[in-house]
TrEMBL record:
A Gene Ontology term for the protein's cellular component: sulfite reductase complex (NADPH)
Coiled-coil stretches: none
PROSITE patterns (UniProt xref): 4FE4S_FER_2 (PS51379)
Gene3D superfamilies: 3.30.70.20, 3.30.70.2500, 6.10.140.1420, Sulfite Reductase Hemoprotein, domain 1
Keyword annotations of the record: 4Fe-4S, Iron, Iron-sulfur, Metal-binding, Oxidoreductase
GO terms classed as biological process: sulfate assimilation
Annotated InterPro entries: 4Fe4S_Fe-S-bd, DsrA, Nit/Sulf_reduc_fer-like_dom_sf, NO2/SO3_Rdtase_4Fe4S_dom, NO2/SO3_Rdtase_4Fe4S_prot, NO2/SO3_Rdtase_4Fe4S_sf
UniProt-recorded name of the protein: Dissimilatory-type sulfite reductase subunit alpha
Length: 432
């Protein structure tokens, strides 16, 4: 084995002095144990970046595996003479299983392969969703892809202007609130849209994120171009005996999460009723009974989270479909907008796929380069997108707030000849 060259990294080492575990500790301990020159060179280049106050990574063109346009993010050092072990430091995204369930043997195989063919460093899991293999050279890309697909039954995830790897919460596997089978839906969408996932053809990235209930544990409403949120359309189920047990102190609210309550005994009025965003709940102190006006409920989940043994989602379940969330890249950050308040989701999910494909067709034809779906909706207008593109009927759930100006706008074809017909009809009914 060649001699390992270590670098002097005083500024990087400062990161080890904080109260929390540091990535610097992790990388150095791994590098020492496995004698990985790439890890030492990585820390050396990071020190240089701190000193120069600029990055020393560059993108030297497209790099990937044969037949795929995504999954590999090319990265090269512009300090190759100083740090030759990271002349290339490509990142590989691995398509995670639904809900990120792994068998330990699969992870061991993956780690052994990556120790052999890459830097040994990986990320499970970051904000991209995928399992990310950090740092390898161009010559190893095809062997890595072969090992992943043929030895481990895994695939590359999405990168670039394509469908990114669909992501979901644990769903019905572990969560009693899940209204849809998030894992089945994620797997189906992943397998259906393989071409969109691996071969970039969109104006920019597109993300599916799926949460089984309105608690939205994967933050789909904040991060996904198409957010799928499990919900119910019937009434919240109420166990009145359990409600009384919460009020009487026999059951701990929030499933006992705040066992050190220092604000006194549970107060259903202050902690549930008064915090309901639509004020659709009423506690009758005399009857000791909880009433819910379910037509006004907006499924915020607060009451269910506070009193989980007393309240449960309804049994007539489906999903709310929202579109347009994004981080602040070109325009500011935005949350997704309700497009379909309630959609039933059963395999093969044809109703959802029809909506997805209508959206993609319009976006690919009209979207500007690096324009996310939410920005396109803002540009063309929500009303045009809902009515003309998706063919949906406008409903109150699409309105964020009342109109703030008195003008009414009409389509040209509605105006053309319209007022003449109205005048003629008026004169017919009211002859001079």
């Amino acid at each position: 084995m060649a001699d390992i060259k270590k670098h002097d990294t005083p500024m990087v080492d400062e990161l080890k002095s904080g109260p929390w575990p540091s990535f610097v500790d992790d990388i150095y301990s791994y590098a020492e144990k496995h004698q990985k020159q790439a890890c030492f060179d990585l820390m050396g280049q990071l020190e240089l970046s701190y000193k120069h106050k600029e990055t020393h990574w560059k993108h030297g063109g497209i790099v990937g595996v044969f037949g795929y346009g995504g999954g590999v993010i090319g990265r090269y050092s512009d300090q190759q003479d100083k740090f030759p072990a990271i002349w290339a430091f490509h990142t590989i995204r691995v398509n995670q299983p639904a809900s990120k369930w792994y068998h330990s043997s699969a992870l061991r195989k993956l780690c052994d392969m990556w120790d052999h063919r890459g830097s040994g460093m990986l990320n499970t899991h970051g904000s991209t969703g995928d399992l990310v293999l950090l740092g390898t050279v161009t010559e190893q890309l095809e062997p890595i892809f072969y090992d992943l697909t043929h030895q481990m039954n895994m695939d590359l995830g999405g990168s670039g202007s394509n469908l990114r790897t669909p992501s979901c919460c644990v769903g019905k596997a572990r969560c009693e609130w899940s209204c849809i089978d998030t894992q089945a839906l994620t797997y189906d969408l992943t397998m259906t849209y393989q071409d969109e996932l691996h071969r970039p053809a969109f104006p920019y990235k597109f993300k599916f994120k799926i949460s089984g209930c309105p608690n939205d544990c994967v933050a789909a409403i904040a991060r996904a171009d198409l957010s799928i949120i499990g919900t119910w359309i019937d009434d919240i189920r109420i166990d009145q005996e359990a409600v009384r047990a919460y009020v009487g102190g026999e059951l701990k609210p929030n499933a006992g999460a705040h066992s050190d309550r220092d604000w006194g005994p549970f107060d259903i009025q202050k902690e549930v009723i008064d915090l309901c965003p639509t004020q659709c709940m009423y506690w009758d102190e005399k009857e000791k009974k909880l009433y819910i006006n379910n037509k006004e409920c907006n499924r915020c989940m607060h009451c269910i989270n506070v009193m989980p043994e007393a309240l449960r989602p309804g049994t007539d379940t489906g999903a709310t479909i929202l579109m347009g969330a994004k981080a602040p890249i070109l325009e500011g950050a935005q949350l997704s907008t309700v497009i379909v308040p309630f959609m039933r989701l059963e395999p093969p999910y044809d109703n959802l796929k029809e909506l997805i494909e209508k959206t993609w067709d319009f976006w690919m034809e009209n979207g500007k380069n690096r324009e996310r779906l939410g920005e396109l909706i803002q540009r063309v207008g929500l009303n045009r997108f809902i009515v003309d593109v998706l063919g949906l009927k406008p409903i109150p759930q699409h309105v964020r707030e009342p109109r703030s100006n008195p003008y009414v706008f009409w389509k040209e074809e509605e105006v053309e000849g319209g007022w003449q017909r109205d005048v003629a009809e008026f004169r017919k009914r009211h002859p001079a």
